[in-house]
Task: structure prediction
Amino acid sequence: MQELKYAVIGNPVEHSLSPTIHSLFAKQFNLNLSYKPIKLQIDSFNQELLYLFKTNRLHGCNITAPFKVKAFEFVDELTERAQIAKSVNTIKKLNCGRLLGDNTDGFGLTNDLINKHIELTNKNILLVGSGGASRGIIFPLLMQGVKKISIVNRTEHKARELAKEFTPYGEVESLSLNNLQVVNSDIVINGTSATFSQDNFILSSSLKFTKNFTGYDLNYNEKKSDFICWSEQMKACENYNGFGMLVEQAALSFQLWFNQTPNTKAIFDHFRIFKSYSHFLI
Result:
């Protein structure tokens, strides 16, 4: 049986649960899958990744921080959702040798929110951060009927640029972090990598919320992130980590590679520990 060579590419990447998740998916279909974490250097990402594909050391891969925007520029072809996001988290080597880039992050997130019975239609979302993780989720959220997405970022002009880019698809605005005092949001999503950098979460603990809100961190690990601690302090009605998104986006990547839809419930049963808080960037 041919060995199928896949990986998750990032820096850092040692923490990733993707190898375990994809190995469990592969067992469902009796596939001989090799899936490993590979750390690439930021300055030589293109050269190193091209070498892995050209020498048949990879048939496909997932891309994690900080390479999702670099991967968008690296691939030969793009799916529609990756083109809109301008961010790639999944690469597939086609039979012709060309590399196809996709972004399964956003639809992984919306699938997880739907699984958790979190209503999205006509809801207001506050999105914190304007990097590759945030890029991947805006369009899928709008496609679920979200009323408005407000973006805040430590570097304000990046939030403005991102909001402007997505306004053709729905109501997206940027807010000034310095002037943010009252929040009218149903869901607050953390798309920053504060967990990696050890920074404190960028939103103030003096914010006033006009309604109950749900907190969702795109990160996962075995302890509470700064965002979850902040969200609890703000009296969020519910708080979730990004493990569900990780599993659901992985399932969509697997489907792209092998044209098979894995059973994600089996993964949640396997990782019962992640029913508590967990955080690291996917």
Notes: The longest strand covers residues 4-10. The chain is about 35% helix and 20% strand.
